[in-house]
């Protein structure tokens, strides 16, 4: 019994195959999904998606969206998604530092909110890279 | 537009040729290059005039051929993007359904069209469908507004439905379409327009020669809840436990906003593909017409040339025989 996972972004299909288990981060915390999970529709936060194939865990950085789980089919729709293995650790670290600097410089409510979002995205990418290695 | 210009050229050519006036031997056809002589019905048209027309038709043919190739290359680029974005709105339709027959008070019709012309009839079909939807949905208590994307639809709809237009966006294709830009646009629309149902009208790209005008319906969260209670496709929504957010309605609202921006993104990409495809076929038929026109003009040119040579010979020979006595 395996789950069929589909991760879609507006630009391309990032993942479309069977997995054993996933761990998804939502606004209200992380949820683990095993086969025969109850049907739910949930909002996905900017965070990491962990996928287990056999005994190996893969990470993917997700930038917010929705997920629908039902009938052993998981559909995740996000604004952007990157596989942990596709992210360059050096570059992710630099992006994180730039985002932190921007947050410190930001003034005005809108800039602070945008800088915060950018920071969370950069942090997620760094975590995705680190979680594998 | 190019084809109309070619047709006009053809009419100007045909008129002097069919006037039944006898050849006036005193008028030599070689010298006259002005239009007045031709319009007066002299059958001998100057070769210079025909040559000028051939040159302009040849230029038009080159231009339309080049436009066709440009459209073909642009089409290739956008087509892959459009196909990738198709997978995005399918889960939404599977979850929330696409019910164009929903009956709501406030309808907003989002018409997507191109900014540039010369692309066949796709903009006119979109506007026709929008007007049809407007008629269907306008009634005593219901109201129907337009949000227009693209210069062409704006030009057509401003003529008779000016008061119903809420927002109009143009010059969207300056930068290649990407999701962030469309998300901002969708946000803009949602903020400024009150709606119960949004109907997006666009041309779906089925193949390089087939564009189907389609409409996708996105419902506002309140209507979704109402319909969910009524049953049907949306009734299955209740079987899903909604998580991730304070309340169910907040999640539903985010969901419908996300749905709208995804559907808009796909609609804009498909419409852009249809536009390039329609432009390709329009420019192709235009080049072919120009080629036909050029063939006919070449025949006329040869006939004119031979006629002038014959006239000159006649003059010389008759002059010589008159001298001999």
UniProtKB/TrEMBL annotation, chain A:
Domain of life: Eukaryota
ATP synthase F1 complex delta/epsilon subunit N-terminal domain sequence ranges: 3-81
GO molecular function terms listed in the Swiss-Prot or TrEMBL record: proton-transporting ATP synthase activity, rotational mechanism
One CC-aspect GO term: proton-transporting ATP synthase complex
ATP synthase epsilon subunit C-terminal domain location: 86-129
UniProt keyword list: ATP synthesis, CF(1), Chloroplast, Hydrogen ion transport, Ion transport, Membrane, Plastid, Thylakoid, Transport
A Pfam family of this chain: ATP-synt_DE
Main location: membrane
Subcellular location(s) of the protein: Membrane
Membrane topology: Peripheral membrane protein
Coiled-coil positions: none
NCBIfam families: ATP_synt_epsi (TIGR01216)
Family, similarity comment: Belongs to the ATPase epsilon chain family.
Name this protein carries in UniProt: ATP synthase CF1 epsilon subunit
Taxonomic source organism: Rehmannia glutinosa
Biological classification of the source: Eukaryota, Viridiplantae, Streptophyta, Embryophyta, Tracheophyta
Automatic annotation (TrEMBL), chain B:
Domain of life: Eukaryota
Subcellular location: Membrane
Membrane topology: Peripheral membrane protein
Keywords linked to the UniProt accession: ATP synthesis, CF(1), Hydrogen ion transport, Ion transport, Membrane, Transport
Assembly information from the UniProt record: F-type ATPases have 2 components, CF(1) - the catalytic core - and CF(0) - the membrane proton channel. CF(1) and CF(0) have multiple subunits.
Species in which this protein is naturally found: Rehmannia glutinosa
Keyword Membrane: yes
Keyword Transport carried by entry: yes
Similarity comment: Belongs to the ATPase gamma chain family.
Protein name: ATP synthase subunit gamma
InterPro entries: ATP_synth_F1_ATPase_gsu (IPR035968), ATP_synth_F1_gsu (IPR000131), ATP_synth_F1_gsu_CS (IPR023632)
